[in-house]
Amino acid sequence: MGERCGWVGQDQIYIDYHDEEWGVPEWDGRALYEKLMLDGFQAGLSWITILKKRENFRAAFEGFVPARIAEWGEAEIERCLADPGIVRHRGKIEAAIGNARGWLEIEAREGFSNYLWGYVGGEPVQNHWASLAEVPAKTPVSEAISKDLKKRGFRFVGPTIVYAFMQAVGMVNDHVAGCPRHAECAALGQKPG
Questions:
Q1: Per-residue b/e over 19-37, b at no fewer than 16 CB within 10 Å?
Q2: Which are the contacts of 12, defined by CB distance < 8 A and separation ≥ 6?
């Protein structure tokens, strides 16, 4: 057995995230919206900051149900700006609302999950990096997704954010080859059903 990916560190919340969640293929469209929004809120911050606030985000954002958030207005924005349990950034909060509206359009047309997973042929890309130094910050696929999401009105979805999202939701398996989770995530394979 190899060692965990080098970014994990010693904090238990990071260890649990790495061992149980990061790189596991996510097929649920609502869950994909939530993760993409949390990655957007991370911009300029560390991921552990978001992990520690994730339950607060879920409460503040009504479980990240896009249909609810798409109807938000100034009162909800002000409520979030007053909530010390989340990242209080007006632009990111407003982006989550606009992105929920964009999500609804994509969901109605083809399904948000189908839309995203279509970029990788419907199954995780299996990378085999020997070290973290080899892992890219963005790829042509993350650039294409970012460009298309922006065209659809999404914000805080740059190619680096999108690639971090792709790694987290298992669209790409970027556990380093020596990490025990690499083989475990690779075995999860294709969308069920």
A1: eeebbebbbebbebbbbbb
A2: none
CA-to-CA distance for 127 and 173, rounded, in angstroms?
Answer: 6
Q: Which amino acid is at 170?
A: G
pLDDT at 78 over 80: yes
Please, what is the angle between helix 29-42 and helix 47-60, to 10°?
Answer: 130
Phi-psi region of 123 (alpha: psi -120 to 50; beta: other; left: phi over 0): beta
The model's pTM: 0.95
pLDDT greater than 80 at residue 193 = no
What the block records as the tokens of 69 is 């958030």
**170 Cβ contact partners less than 8 Å away, ≥ 6 residues apart:** 23, 24, 25, 26, 124, 185, 188
Q: Tokens 């002000």 belong to which residue?
A: 78
What's the DSSP call for residue 71?
T
Mean pLDDT of 145-173: 98
Per the CB < 8 A criterion, the answer to whether 32 and 107 are in contact is: no
Cα 6 to Cα 50, 142, 179, distances in angstroms: 19, 23, 9
Q: Which two tokens stand for residue 160?
A: 């680096």
Q: Determine the Cα–Cα distance for residues 163 and 159; give it in Å rounded to an integer.
A: 6
CA distances from 161 to 36, 73, 187 (A): 8, 25, 25
